Amino acid sequence: MQEEKLSTSKKWRNVYVLVIGTLVLLIIFFYFFTKQFA
Amino acid sequence: MSILDWFVLIITLLAVITYGIYKSKSEKTLDGYFKSSNSMSWFLILLSIMGTQASAITFLSAPGQAYTDGMRFVQYYFGLPLAMVVLCVTFIPIYHKLKVYTAYEFLEQRFDLKTRALASVLFLIQRALSTGISIYAPSIILSSLLGWNIYYTNLVMGGFLIIYTVSGGTKAVTYTQMQQLLIVFIGMFLAGYMVVHMLPPNVSFYDALHVAGKMGKLNVIETKIDVTDSHWWKDKYNIWSGLIGGFFLALSYFGTDQSQVGRYLTAKNTKESRIGLLMNGLVKVPMQFLILMVGSLVFVFYMFYQSPVFFNQKEVEKVLATDYKTSFINLQAKNDSLNNIKQIQTHQLVDAIHQKNDIQIRNTQASLKEIDKQTKVIRADAVAVMKKADKTADTNDTNYIFLYFVVQNLPRGLIGLLIAMIFLAAWGSIAAALNSLASTTVIDLYKRMWVKEQTETHYFKASRWFTFGWGLFCIATAMFASKLGSLIEAVNVLGSLFYGTILGIFLVAFYMKKVGGKAVFYAAVTTEVFVIAIYIADVISFLWLNVIGCLLVMGFAFVLQKLLQNKKAPY
From CA B439, how far away is CA B432, in angstroms rounded? Predict the structure, then answer.
């Protein structure tokens, strides 16, 4: 039970990292988008 | 509007109302009415959250914002994905574990009844007034551009959705939001496609982006803060205010505003709530980017074709009926001749882009920017003339730009669809707001304090009556809004005045386990006074008020708790 709970929380942690990583990638994309057309 | 436009508009609205009524038949309990008996999947949660946040003014204002100020408004949403993560870690597990109907119910379990009542009342005040304005704001734009009666427009904007919101509660709201968003996305996509399609034949989408970029309208990221400017801290949209201010705003809006909390409390379980919120964090930023891009493309469209000196034609008609007619017509003529030069130069810019001639690009860019500067001066002069003619004139036409473009340029049928889109976007957020106003009134006040021992059927019927009552109140606010004048803007920032305080209460509840009800209650009341004083002093952008309010509540609560403990110690 405890092990299952731990693996679930680890899975969610990976999801959160994925979300924040996507935000960082978006900001990088926007930065180059702004530069490209300026 | 043509008959075809009326046909498309009426059929679309009727279809959504009928669908809402059809979906509302099964609900007969309080749990079903406010929480859809916890039956919603993450996909419905995602659409419902998006439909609640995106009001009509989002789709009217954002393209206009990009037209005047470029795309930097998108940075305002950068804090949102981060806030979604915090919500998933902290707020959602507790809300689901306690099986609450409203966010404020949790505050009584953590603190006491008076803190719960305070947060509920703050929410009711700001949500009810801002919902009234969400009815009025798109109505005044539609009535100005299409010559409709403002009172009837208010009635359609805020009235028809009451039918399915009262009868079907949360379930009807969520399912209709799904239909509404689908139509809104189709409408925005077609509008974007049509702008590009109507550009001169030698101008591609890629060229249009280049032109917009050269004119400073694709400024998605702004990292610079000019500290030499004495008003630098008032700058609303740079990456820092977006990440920090946007984070606190999103955290308070999605974590403590019942109109949003009520959406994800309908989920089957915590997993579905979490996925819905996280997907919202991922989808919202690109979605806002695309909506703003439509505005930048409309700007490019008007680089090739004549643009009016002022987009709100009702105000133009008013000034033309006064002694200032000649001065205004002179300004219009100046604007038109500048437009002619601008069109020639823009074609030259596109040719230079095709030839990859950097020197030519820079030269044309510089002269186009100079023309843009002169156009802004003419617009400012026109506004000054309008103000002289009528001191109460509405001199901000940002929200009129997109709809002016739609009505003047798009083909028949599509105009009807885009106006239906405005109504449906409004309905989605207003319906969720009415539902949340009713749930907070019934659960946190009526059932908890006023009429305690009654049957489930009694509370279910009361919920329907409160939904109806709040609907009438919001329409009445919209009807009186035209008399509020400049107060409307104050009502719009009302959210920022209260959100920080409410978020502070919740963060104390989650993270400061030793602080009790008395300390947090007085901390919240003191903070509210401070926040209102800061707002009146007008020293900082309203986006930062959330951060200040939240941190002040936490700080005051900590100090007060220490003082209360010291006082108790001798006994």
Answer: 11
